[in-house]
Each structure stands twice: as structure tokens, then as C-alpha cells.
Amino acid sequence: MEMRRVREIIIAHGHENIRALHPSTMEITTSERLTPRGDCIIAVGADKAICDLSQEFKELARRMDATIIVRIIAGGIMEEVIGKGHPNLTFEDDESIVIRKSGYLCPRTLMIKANKAARDLRRDLVNLLRSKETIVRVEIEVLAD
Q: Over the stretch 63-109, which tens digit does the pLDDT of each residue have?
């Protein structure tokens, strides 16, 4: 049987307060505001929140065998993050998308057991993300049998 895949594209931008130091999560938000305390946030002003992802994406991501790949692309630099889906993902939040290294689930969770959190991102990419002029393309792909 052929592997099914569904892809979503999100466009966001950088912010001067991006630090990307969180050890277990990273977040993309539709909000334009970011205080230095938000050390998991890697992009703001996103054109989609987790609730805006397609029904087809959500259904596939809820499979036990789902693998989710996120590519963060800015200024010619690409970082790839790989994690897992889960049957209890709700995709309900209307502001955020959160990638987690842990198995914690909440309405903002996109994937769990990710291989990277905010602090694991390349520092040359993080430096670019500190400018609101930087356009961030986030490609999210889910694959399952």
C-alpha cells in the first residue's frame, strides 16, 4: 500500500525578541506580539493556526503510525524537525502551533516526540528569525500508511 501524505504551508515572519532557547518545545504563533519570556517562539504573524490545518491533515496526523515533518525555511536556510502524530491530537487552538519533544498533548500540539526543540535550531537561522523583515516559510507534512 502506498504511503499517504498531506502537506500544509504556513507563512510567518521573524521578531526582534525571538531567542529560541526552550529545551523541549518550539512554537509558531499568529500573534504579532512577543516578549523575551516567549523563548519557545520561532516565528510570529503566521497566516494559519493549528485549527486552520485541513481536515485531511488532521485525520492523517491522528494515526498511530503518523510521522510529521516540519521544514522551517528562511533566508536560504532550512531546518527539518521530525516527530510523531497521535490519536488524541485535537488541533483546536486558534493562535499557536507547538512542536514538542515530550509526549504532552494539548489543543496547541502539532506533534510529539520531536527530534528538535527551539534551542536545537541552527543559530544562523535563529539570527535571521530576529528580524521582522525575515519571511519564514513553514512546510508541514504528515505521512502515514
A: 999 999 999 999 999 999 999 999 999 999 999 999 999 999 999 99
Instruction: Please give the single-letter amino acid code of residue 21.
Output: L
CA distances from 11 to 43, 105, 134, 145 (A): 9, 24, 11, 28
Three-class secondary structure of residue 77 per DSSP: strand
Q: Where does the chain show beta strands of DSSP type E?
A: 4-13, 25-29, 41-43, 67-74, 77-84, 96-100, 109-111, 135-144
CATH number of 55's domain: 2.60.120.630
Contact 42, 26 (CB under 8 A): yes
What range does the domain containing 68 cover?
A: 4-144
pTM over 0.90: yes
The amino acid at 92: E
Number of domains comprising the chain:
1
